[in-house]
Amino acid sequence: MLSNLPQQPADALLALIKLHNQDPRGDKIDLGVGVYRTGQGDTPVFGAIKAAEKRLVATQDSKAYLGPEGDMGFVTALMPYVFGAANPDLNGRIEGMQTPGGTGSLRLALAMVKRAQVAQVWMGTPSWPNHAQICADLGLPMKSFSHATADGAANMDALRAAIAEAGEGDCFLLHGCCHNPTGIDYANADWDEIAGLIAGKKLLPLLDLAYQGLGAGMEEDAYGVRRVLAAVPEAIVAYSCDKNFGLYRDRTGALYVMMAEAAQLPAVMSNGHALARANWSQPPDHGAAAARIVMEDEALTREWLDELDTMRERMRQVRERLAAAGKVGGVDLTPIGKQHGLFSIIPFTPEQVQAMRAKHGIYFAGSGRINVAGLTMGNIDQFIAAVADVTG
Ligand code: LMR
């Protein structure tokens, strides 16, 4: 029977890791998958996480199962950062559970959306390719609208039109901050409007928050999520700690659900728990336990937030440098200076993407998405020269 299965293409983003590794050139540059890199090009374990891991190894006295919801201490410790320290569970209206990374959270969120018989899921495109992949795998109908205008702004007109066209109860999947792949975020004034439009049309928002702290700051990056949640009766937040705790391969994330009444949460969350059981039974513990130890300790929390500040500042410098290059060959790098997070899109043609790989050993997604953290003061001029060469 298994010979009936047709060959599937490798995931285009994850395939870049291998392509880059196989390139023997010493001056190759990896701007592919979304991992942060230091000015030396490394992706080290956060100092705060290393310290927490030492403590975890020294003190953990059991690895017995925790249940489908995972480490609830971790889930709770994260809530003030996401929903605000003043009222982190909005008077008992929010409950969460731990998931294997942001993908696990999105998988559960969208499976819940499917169980709730939501008619369709709307998303701005381009989006993170796995969003559409998960919807397709679940058999969830999708509708798309354009996320950004040609001149690099958030396309509010397209979003307004999509909301006007949507049916009551449709799900709107929005990136909380650091839009992947464009780096083009909604301004706070946009979020104010979006919150009202979503509430007015009785839509179900699903907010994907995978880069909190990598945009403008931990508080600033939560503006959209908090603004939307304040306006609607029900919402889902899919959270990833992969980037802002550097826990990528430890698969650390959380799913949060907000309901109009606290009394509605047990039924909803029982679906999340049942879906987790059917998918992975229980999430992996290590990353969440380490992140919890960081968030429960004042000194480690300070160290973690300082590390995030350093990352953000480095990415700001890279963006500033690219923007200062202005028009390079046939493309304009100026808008990159105003964008947020790890990613920006440069409008390369598919042939130019291939030429960047083959001729210059510079690897990034076929969409033209670059991971700006892959650029350092040591390789940025080489990158700009290559862009000039292939687009000029
Ligand atoms: C990315 O978009 O590169 C990251 O979110 C990593 C991934 O899983 O795709």
Report on this model:
The chain has 392 residues and is an alpha/beta fold. The protein is built from 13 helices and 13 strands. The model has no long low-confidence stretch (mean pLDDT 97). β6, α8 and β7 form a beta-alpha-beta unit. The chain has two domains: 11-45 and 312-391, Aspartate Aminotransferase, domain 1 (Alpha-Beta Complex); 65-296, Aspartate Aminotransferase, domain 2 (3-Layer(aba) Sandwich), CATH 3.40.640. The structure holds (2S)-2-hydroxybutanedioic acid (LMR).
Summarize the structure.
With 392 residues, the protein is an alpha/beta fold.
CATH architecture of the largest domain: 3-Layer(aba) Sandwich
Mean pLDDT across the residues is: 97
CATH superfamily of the largest domain: Type I PLP-dependent aspartate aminotransferase-like (Major domain)
Task: Compute the separation of the termini in Å.
Answer: 51 Å
Morphology call: globular
CATH class of the largest domain: Alpha Beta
- The radius of gyration is 21 Å
* Helix content class: 40-55%
Count up the domains: 2
The CATH topology of the largest domain turns out to be Aspartate Aminotransferase, domain 2
Bound molecules: (2S)-2-hydroxybutanedioic acid
Regions with pLDDT < 50 over 5+ consecutive residues? none
As a percent range, the share of strand residues is 5-15%
Strand arrangement, largest sheet? 2-8-7-6-5-3-4
> What's the number of extended β-strand segments?
13
Structural class: alpha/beta
Number of helices: 13
Biggest sheet architecture:
7 strands, mixed
